[in-house]
C-alpha cells in the first residue's frame, strides 16, 4: 500500500514537471510566433574556440561560407562574445543610423586609444567626441579643401618631376610616399613637411607598426612593437607641442588642418590642448593615409588593366585641358566625373576597411529581404562588411567585374537598392568625414599621371593583402612609364 502511494506521488510530480515544461515551451513558442521574431541563426563551429578559429581563418572567408547557408543575418560565437553580422542594405540601416546610446563605437574601437593618445576620439565620452568630429568637419569644409587642393597639386608636380623620362617603378610604393608627403603638407603643416618630415614619418611608422591584429584584443600587451608605439606617441607629442607653441607665439596662421585644430573651441569656450591637437592629427592620418594610398593604387591597377577605361579617363583629361588649359584646382577636379567613377569602382571592389563594428546596448530587430525578422539582443557585437556588401549580386550586376559605368546616370546601381548599398566610406551617423578630401587627393594624383605619362602595368595584377589591418595591395605593382604631354588640340 505504502509503495503504491510513493509510486503515485512520484508519478504525479513527474507529470507536473513534464506539464510545466510543455506549457512553458508552448507559451514561449506562442509568444515567439505571435511576434514572428527569432534570434539569428548561429554559425556551426567546434565548442569553445571554434568561433575564434573560423574568424582567424579570415572574416571574409567565413562570410563567403556562411552567407549562402545562413542568409544576411547570423551570429558567430567568438569566445565569450557574440558577433552578429548584418550584410546588405536591407538589414544594415540600423547599424549606420542608430544613436550612440544604442550602438556604440567606443568599446569596439578602444584599441586605438594608445595610438591616438589620451583625451581624444575613443578615449572620451560621445558628447566630447562629437565636438571633436565637429573640428574635423570644419577643417574639411569646401573653403579649406580649396586650399588643400593647391598643395596636393604642387606636391604631385614636385614628386613626379623627379621621375626620369622613362623607367620602371613600384607604383604602390610611389603613391604611398607621395600621399604621406601630401598629408604632411595639408594636415600636419609646413613645419613638419619642410623641416621634420623624416623624423615625423619615422615616428608614424612606429605608430603604424604598433597596431597589430593582437593589439585589437590586448592593446597594452608589453611587446616591443607596443613599446616603440608608446615612445613614438610621446615624441610626436613633444614635436607638435613645440610647433603649436611657436605658431601661437608668432601669431602665425597657416592653411592646414593643424591650424584648424589649434583654433578649434569646445562649446563651453575651452580651446583645444596641445595633446588633443596631436591626437586629432594622428587620428586624421590613421583614417586617411593608408586608405587613400591603397585606393589610388587599385585605381591605377584597374585603369592600366582595362584599356577602354584608361582611354575614357584620358579623353576626359583632354577635354578639361581644352576647356581650362593646364590648370588644376578644386573646381576642375570636381568636373572629373569619369575619373571619379573609376576611383569609386576600385573602392567598391577593394574597400580598405573590410569590417565595421559596433557594440549593442539595446535590443533591436531587423527584417531581411525575404521578410524574416530577427531580434538582436543587447550585448552583441554587431558587424557589417563593406567588402562583402559591396559585391552582393542582387545589387551589383556582375559584382566582381570592374565596371565604373555602373555608377553613371541611368544605371546608378548603388542608388537603386537604396541607402547603404555602397559602404566603402561607411555611412549614416559615422560616415567618413574625409571622403571629399580623399577623392580630391586621388584625382589630383591621377590627373597629373594621365596628363604627363604613358603607363603600362608590367607585373601581374596584384592580389589582396588580407593580413594587413587596413587591407590593400599585396606585394609590388610594377609599372613602366614614359614621359609625354597629353595632346589636347
Ligand atoms: C579612400 C579613403 C578613405 C576611406 C575608404 C575611408 C573609410 C572610412 C569608413 C569606412 C569610415 C566609417 C567607420 C565606421 O563606421 O566604423 C570612416 C570614418 C571616418 N573617416 Fe574615413 N576614409 C577615407 C579617408 C579619410 C580621410 C582622408 C580622412 C581625414 C582626413 C578621414 C576621416 C574619417 C573620420 C574622422 C571618420 C569618423 C567619422 C565618425 O565616426 O563620425 N577618412 N572612414
TrEMBL record:
The record's Pfam families line, in alphabetical order, gives:
p450 (PF00067)
Q: Give cofactor(s), names only.
A: heme
Per the record, what are the reactions this protein catalyses? a 14alpha-methyl steroid + 3 reduced [NADPH--hemoprotein reductase] + 3 O2 = a Delta(14) steroid + formate + 3 oxidized [NADPH--hemoprotein reductase] + 4 H2O + 4 H(+)
Q: Which UniProt keywords apply?
A: Heme, Iron, Lipid biosynthesis, Lipid metabolism, Membrane, Metal-binding, Methyltransferase, Monooxygenase, Oxidoreductase, Steroid biosynthesis, Steroid metabolism, Sterol biosynthesis, Sterol metabolism, Transferase, Transmembrane, Transmembrane helix
Question: Under which EC number(s) is this enzyme classified?
Answer: 1.14.14.154
Q: Which residues form a coiled coil?
A: none
Q: Name one GO molecular function term.
A: iron ion binding
Q: Where, by residue number, does the polypeptide cross the bilayer?
A: 12-31
User: According to its record, how does it sit in the membrane?
Assistant: Single-pass membrane protein
The record ties this protein, via SUPFAM superfamilies, to:
Cytochrome P450
Q: Which GO terms describe its biological process?
A: methylation; sterol biosynthetic process
Q: What class of enzyme is it?
A: oxidoreductase
Main location per the UniProt record: membrane
Using the record, list the residue span of the signal peptide; answer none if the entry has no such feature.
Answer: none
One GO cellular component term, please give it.
membrane
> Per UniProt, where does heme bind?
432
Cell compartment(s), UniProt: Membrane
Protein family per UniProt: Belongs to the cytochrome P450 family.
Q: What is this protein called?
A: sterol 14alpha-demethylase
Organism in which the protein naturally occurs: Prunus avium (Cherry)
Amino acid at each position: 500500500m505504502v509503495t503504491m502511494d510513493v509510486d503515485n506521488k512520484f508519478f504525479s510530480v513527474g507529470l507536473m514537471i513534464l506539464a510545466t515544461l510543455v506549457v512553458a515551451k508552448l507559451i514561449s513558442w506562442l509568444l515567439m510566433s505571435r511576434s514572428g521574431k527569432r534570434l539569428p541563426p548561429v554559425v556551426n563551429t567546434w565548442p569553445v574556440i571554434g568561433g575564434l578559429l573560423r574568424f582567424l581563418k579570415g572574416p571574409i572567408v567565413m562570410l563567403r561560407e556562411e552567407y549562402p547557408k545562413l542568409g544576411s543575418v547570423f551570429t558567430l560565437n567568438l569566445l565569450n562574445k557574440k558577433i552578429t553580422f548584418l550584410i546588405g542594405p536591407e538589414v544594415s540601416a540600423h547599424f549606420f543610423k542608430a544613436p550612440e546610446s544604442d550602438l556604440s563605437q567606443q568599446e569596439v574601437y578602444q584599441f586605438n586609444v594608445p595610438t591616438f593618445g589620451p583625451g581624444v576620439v575613443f578615449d572620451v565620452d560621445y558628447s566630447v567626441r562629437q565636438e571633436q568630429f565637429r573640428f574635423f568637419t570644419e577643417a574639411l569644409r569646401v573653403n579649406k579643401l580649396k586650399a588643400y587642393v593647391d598643395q596636393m597639386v604642387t606636391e604631385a608636380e614636385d614628386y613626379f618631376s623627379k621621375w626620369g623620362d622613362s623607367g620602371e617603378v613600384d607604383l604602390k610604393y610611389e603613391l604611398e610616399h607621395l600621399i604621406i608627403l601630401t598629408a604632411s603638407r595639408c594636415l600636419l603643416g609646413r613645419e613638419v613637411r619642410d623641416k621634420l618630415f623624416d623624423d615625423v614619418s619615422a615616428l608614424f611608422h612606429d605608430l603604424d607598426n604598433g597596431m597589430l591584429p593582437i593589439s585589437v584584443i590586448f592593446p597594452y600587451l608589453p611587446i616591443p612593437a607596443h613599446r616603440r608605439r608608446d615612445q613614438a606617441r610621446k615624441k610626436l607629442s613633444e614635436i607638435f607641442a613645440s610647433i603649436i607653441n611657436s605658431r601661437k607665439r608668432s601669431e602665425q596662421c597657416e592653411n592646414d588642418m593643424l591650424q584648424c585644430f589649434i583654433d578649434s573651441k569646445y562649446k563651453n569656450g575651452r580651446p583645444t590642448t596641445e595633446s588633443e591637437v596631436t591626437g586629432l592629427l594622428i587620428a586624421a592620418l590613421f583614417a586617411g593615409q593608408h586608405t587613400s594610398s591603397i585606393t589610388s593604387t587599385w585605381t591605377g591597377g584597374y585603369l592600366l588593366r582595362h584599356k577602354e577605361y584608361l582611354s575614357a579617363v584620358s579623353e576626359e583629361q583632354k577635354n578639361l585641358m581644352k576647356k581650362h588649359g593646364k590648370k588644376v584646382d578644386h573646381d576642375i577636379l570636381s568636373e572629373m566625373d569619369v575619373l571619379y567613377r573609376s576611383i569609386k569602382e576600385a573602392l567598391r571592389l577593394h574597400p580598405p576597411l573590410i569590417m565595421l563594428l559596433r557594440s549593442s546596448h539595446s535590443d533591436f530587430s531587423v527584417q531581411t529581404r525575404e521578410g524574416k525578422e530577427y531580434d538582436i539582443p543587447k550585448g552583441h557585437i554587431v558587424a557589417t562588411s563593406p567588402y562583402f556588401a559591396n559585391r552582393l549580386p542582387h545589387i551589383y550586376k556582375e559584382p566582381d567585374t570592374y565596371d565604373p559605368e555602373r555608377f553613371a546616370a541611368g544605371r546608378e546601381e548603388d542608388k537603386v537598392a537604396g541607402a547603404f548599398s555602397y559602404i566603402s566610406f561607411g555611412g549614416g551617423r559615422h560616415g567618413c568625414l574625409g571622403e571629399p578630401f580623399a577623392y580630391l587627393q586621388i584625382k589630383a594624383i591621377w590627373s597629373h599621371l594621365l596628363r604627363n605619362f604613358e603607363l603600362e602595368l608590367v607585373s601581374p595584377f596584384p592580389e589582396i593583402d588580407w593580413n594587413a589591418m587596413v587591407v590593400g595591395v599585396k606585394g609590388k605593382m610594377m609599372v613602366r612609364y614614359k614621359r609625354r604631354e597629353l595632346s589636347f588640340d
